[in-house]
Amino acid sequence: MSHFICLLKHELRVLFIAPSTYVTSVIFLLLMGFIYILILADFTLHPHNNLPTEYFFQLYWIPVFFIVPLLTMKSIAEERRIGTLETLMTTPVTVLEIVFSKFFAAYLFYCLLWMLTLTFPLLVTLTIGSSAMTVKLLDPATLLGGYTFIAISGLLFISIGIFSSSLTRSQLVAGMLCFSILFIIILGVPALRTQSIGWLEWMVGALEYFNNFNHLEDFSRGVIDTRHIVFYFSYSTLVLGISVLITESKV
Amino acid sequence: MAVVEDFKYVNWIKRINQLVQILLCISFIIGLNYFAKNLYWRSDLTRDHIYSLSPESLAYIRQIEKPIKIIVTLSPDAIEGEMEQVFKHVRNLLKEYEYAGHIGGKKKIEIEVVDVLKERKRADYLARTYGIDQEDVVLVVCEDRQHRLIYSDIIEMENGQVSAFKGERAFTSALIDVSNTEQQKIYFISGYGEMHLDSVDPLRGLSNVAEKLKWGNISLETLNITIASEIPEDADLLILASPQGPYRPQDVEKLRNYLTDRAGKLIVLIEPAIEHGLSDLFYEWGIISDDMVVLDMGKDFQAASGDLLIRRFAGHPITAILRNNPIPVIAGLSRPVRPNLERPTDDRLIITPLISSSPESWAERSYHDSQDLKYNPEVDLKGQVSLAAISERKVSSSLGIDVKGGRLIVFGNTDIISNHRIGSIGNIMLILNTINWCLDREQLLAIQPRPVEKFHLLLSRQELTQLSLVLLSLPGAVAICGIMIYYIRKN
Predict the structure, then answer these.
(1) Closest residue to A49, CB basis, from B454, B458, B466
(2) CATH number belonging to the domain at B55-178, selected among 3.40.30.10, 3.40.50.2300, 3.90.870.10, 3.40.50.1360
(3) Residue A83, SS3 per DSSP
(4) Beta strands B329-331 and B308-310: pairing type?
(5) How does B309-325 read in b/e, with b if 16+ C-beta sit within 10 Å?
(6) How many Å apart are CA B169 and CA B217, to the nearest integer?
(7) Predicted interface score ipTM higher than 0.90
(8) Contact A21/A15 with Cβ under 8 angstroms?
(9) Which chain B positions have a beta carbon within 8 Å of A196's beta carbon?
(10) Average pLDDT along chain A
């Protein structure tokens, strides 16, 4: 455990002193701020049935596509490319500790970035100062549900990034692979479900179950369902487990 | 050489070992998810638990003994805008029903959403098994009993907009309905050439309305009143559609006894120019139907075919949806049916005109003479003319509580219920709402519809620009941090 903590601290330190991390953060916050303003602008044009926060979380996939590959593509692929993974393995740390430290470092940073977006509704309500708007924009149920979804789904997305990084020595290939898998999981599954699926009729239930937007729907309304939590926890554990096995076999 | 082969062998074993580990992990995860899918917990974090079922619904669900299946054939891709919202509402509400239906490790309520446009095999199966031949239907099935719900059962509309969701009331009513082994029964009276339940004739047949009533888990039967000694005990409602001759007094007496002594419910549809023999009964219930024909010259009240377009509705639960949207009812020749003002006042009778023609219309007494069709103030009735009326009798109990004491609804038109008219949305809503109101369906539940809340931001362009600049401060602060760290590391 002490090895894991030590490795995690190291990974976090590396993340926080790397300029690329700040570039990624600025791009992420600019993009999310732009999306938030667009949503608010749309709400000024015509009334909506849902709260702005719900629409904000429904677009979670846009930053996921670039932020997750950027955070994870380097993790194992770079260590293998420059040969430090083998050196690390000569110390009394296990592959499990290495993979999990890299995973948790990226995951904590991912959550931190998303937590920064919580300041958007806070800044808006502080600037405008309308009590009616405060109630709607800072609705605790939708915020808590939405950020819970981000935190839970982030487990799977980051583990996919680590998995991609464990497969190759090239950062670029790892990043592209991660993007492709995320694209298939987030947009491909619902697209497959909504397109003509005559020959896929037998797996409609499975497609529904793997549809991330179905999981999001409950969370963004402020409804917590243990099925979604089990789904993300279990599949992220599976992907991380496979990553450990792959990393172990390639050292 | 043997050493190399040993290494190869060990590598193979290692790889197989890893593969087995992965396969075991996958099967464990699938098993775990299957277990979690069937044994789960939900929590509504909203302040007023707006996404949770009411205690009344939960109490009913706990009493369910036989498993119930709810099949939704709403097509999610074919709908957009308001209807997409309705679909989401239905789906989310049904998740709560499914969760509430997990009692003692058993699944009492099973939900299935079928995209009938794409899942063809499943759609064919549903068509064969339950006779579903359309999308946008919610079917509640328990054993051989089924109850169908359509959009108008789930939402309340006002001026073409969804104003409230009443899905919970509709679903809970349907659950109670199908789980109850005793069906409500409607008798269609015959004996005087009335329209027939099984007839597919476009003008005189009622097969279409009969099919829709069966979807609502209502039992239908024909009753020849000239043969029956009295109205059967199990009659929850009588429908008398278009008699072609006057009722004999002894048959009228049977109806009177049913209405008065047994607090029965009777819907009568009569057409102009045909003597029906029910005037005395109507008089007792405070209704009069003059021997006239309603003529409407209002531009918006005449269909291209010359039929009457009824657009004026009373503020009654039966016609509320038609009035709020507004949806017209198409009718052919009609006679006036109105409250009888000459009758002595009876506080126990509540008489309401239900639908009426336009202010430019009148009821023509000398309709036999087609050359003289103009309004005569001395003998004709000036528009707007009531075309249907409801008479409801309240009976006071010894405790001073008003108890329902019978209902009579008279329509001055018969073809609104016929096969060729019932396809019109206004007509089917009017007829089904009237029948549901008579049978007290849904009225028993005190579950209130959930109003649709709309959120509109009132921000000027200047305020939006100001907000954009405020939100820019966050990435700006992060960028400054990054630059500082870069320079610290560099130095």
Answers:
(1) B454
(2) 3.40.30.10
(3) coil
(4) antiparallel
(5) bbbbbbebebbbbbbbb
(6) 16
(7) no
(8) yes
(9) 118
(10) 89
